[in-house]
């Protein structure tokens, strides 16, 4: 899969944007992830911010988790509601998961938040 995982227009990078979304207080969680969401009035697509703190492990482990989260978002991209800002915060237990399990957990937390459009055949 050589295509770009997340284009710049799909990313949230600014600290101020992170703070505004977190302060909106709409959060959903499971054992491995916390998801903060905010509706955007002007957005015609979703944006995602990833936060993987130092409690997760060293730089190698944090980058591995970020890669897994990006793959999960790419997998779910067709099913995610448009016009939303999402912030995924990894919890330390996520390091024990495979990429498939990370995808499953991202799907779970997104369905809790109601930002995923589930297909009937799943």
TrEMBL record:
Sorted alphabetically, the keyword list is:
Endonuclease, Hydrolase, Nuclease, RNA-binding, tRNA processing
Q: What class of enzyme is it?
A: hydrolase
Give the EC number(s) listed in the UniProt record.
3.1.26.5
Annotated Gene Ontology cellular components are: ribonuclease P complex
Q: Which PROSITE patterns match?
A: RIBONUCLEASE_P
- GO MF terms held by the record: 3'-tRNA processing endoribonuclease activity; ribonuclease P activity; tRNA binding
Catalysis: reaction(s): Endonucleolytic cleavage of RNA, removing 5'-extranucleotides from tRNA precursor
GO BP terms: namely: tRNA 5'-leader removal
Question: Whom does it interact with, and what assembly results?
Answer: Consists of a catalytic RNA component (M1 or rnpB) and a protein subunit.
As for family, the record states: Belongs to the RnpA family.
Q: What does this protein do?
A: RNaseP catalyzes the removal of the 5'-leader sequence from pre-tRNA to produce the mature 5'-terminus. It can also cleave other RNA substrates such as 4.5S RNA. The protein component plays an auxiliary but essential role in vivo by binding to the 5'-leader sequence and broadening the substrate specificity of the ribozyme.
User: Which HAMAP family does the record match to this protein?
Assistant: RNase_P
NCBIfam families per UniProt: rnpA (TIGR00188)
The name this protein carries in UniProt is Ribonuclease P protein component
Q: Origin organism of this chain?
A: Catellicoccus marimammalium M35/04/3
